[in-house]
Amino acid sequence: MRLERDSMGELEVPAQAYYGGNTRRAELNFPISNLRLGRSFIKAIGQIKQSAAFVNRDLGAIEPDIAQAIIASAGRVIEGEFDDQFVVDVFQTGSGTSTNMNANEVISNVAIESLGGTIGSRTPVHPNDHVNKGQSSNDVFPSAIHLAAAVSIKDNLIPALQELENSLREKSTEFWGIVKTGRTHLQDATPIRLGQEFLGYAGQLELGRKRAEKALDELSVLALGGTAVGTGIGMHPEFSSRVITRLGELTGLILSESTNHFQAQSTLDAIVSASGELKSVAVGMLKISNDLRWLGSGPRAGIGEIKLPEVQPGSSIMPGKINPVIAESVAMVSAQVIGNDTTITIAGQSGNFELNVMMPVAAHNILESIELLATSAKNLARQCINGLTATDKGPEMVMEGLAICTALAPIIGYDAAAAIAHEASQDGETIKEVALRVSDLTSAQLDKILDPLSMTEPNE
Questions:
Q1: Among 315, 425, 443, 454, which one carries the catalytic annotation?
Q2: Could you tell me the residue ranges of all domains in the chain?
Q3: CATH T-level topology, domain 139-179+193-223+267-391
Q4: Per-residue pLDDT reduced to its tens digit, 316-327
Q5: Which pairs from 430-435 meet CB under 8 Å and 24+ separation?
Q6: Given 33, 98, 126, 185, which residue is catalytic?
Q7: Which terminal residue of the chain, N or C, has fewer Cβ atoms less than 10 Å from its own Cβ?
Q8: Is residue 185 annotated as part of the catalytic site, yes or no?
Q9: Model-level pTM?
């Protein structure tokens, strides 16, 4: 251990640690879970610190050699070299101050080491006076959440949703000629093309992708520049705009500074809104995964209209059993994302006057939601959709369905058609068999009227 002194006095810090006393206090104060803010957040806060050092150097606020050491050490944090030094629990101070100081101390000590100084000495690079120059935890932390989430949506989620949408559209085209029985209320309905069902799934992903793009827009506005309470105290007037410009160049995002810092720091409204869009994507993926499970159920005693790829044995006791495990994993991801949104909603309600005090848990949850949706969407496309096939069971059952009598109603009337459907249901006959017996329609006329393919498009 080494002995350090901070504003509260002396305490011991692990000798080899790059974090310092402030972080150590938080590590001891919050032994709550094994959850830590992850790679995307650490990278984002590192990018903020590095960009701040560039700007502070150019503004003459920090000596060039100090700034350069911070820039280099922040670069190593951005690359992930010191992820194990970010030790503060997600369940910590609600402002995220402990994690902001964790970043300041790690970057400071790495810079000190590079300049030949003593780790923990706070000289010649001070975590507050130099690394945190022009900043406050209260504007840095929400900015880091937005930055990390926006980058992850742009680089991971939107491409994953696009890939899944493409896979579903390809299956829609492949299955377009396959006519099967539609279902409403889990009961037989009029015929539908299997390709039309998959076109519906592709449409859900298209809208989900657009919702992710809307979330990206919400998150591209940063709180940086408000410092402690939104007034910008202790900051050069050009600091925040210059830092945000540089962050945009680093990430390829179109970023802007909040026009109302009092709103940006006292609320999580943008994160709540973005999480709501992610929840909508999750609900859509849950619907699709459940449909896949039902359509592939069986293979003999279920619906069995599609065959899902066989990726692993399904039972420890029943030989040959294969389960829809990829779809099940998507369903569980959807449940997690929906739960995360509830936590974020509660966190969003926890702004008191000039600051929200549930930022770390909101950060963890929204970043987890983005990552889970992105990885599960890609996995569903690659491990399930791309390899699924149609069976003959759907087309074989079309003429057995009772709902095709819908096509008779415009010709013989609703009541007469309903009577035919009822009789067919009672006797186990087809609609055509009963109609031949009780109506004046010929077999050829019935074949034309009851053609399943004609029922899959609008007609007079």
A1: 315
A2: 2-133, 139-179+193-223+267-391, 401-456
A3: Fumarase C; Chain A, domain 2 (1.20.200)
A4: 899 989 999 999
A5: 430/399, 430/400, 431/399, 431/401, 431/402, 431/404, 431/405, 432/399, 435/405, 435/408
A6: 185
A7: C
A8: yes
A9: 0.95
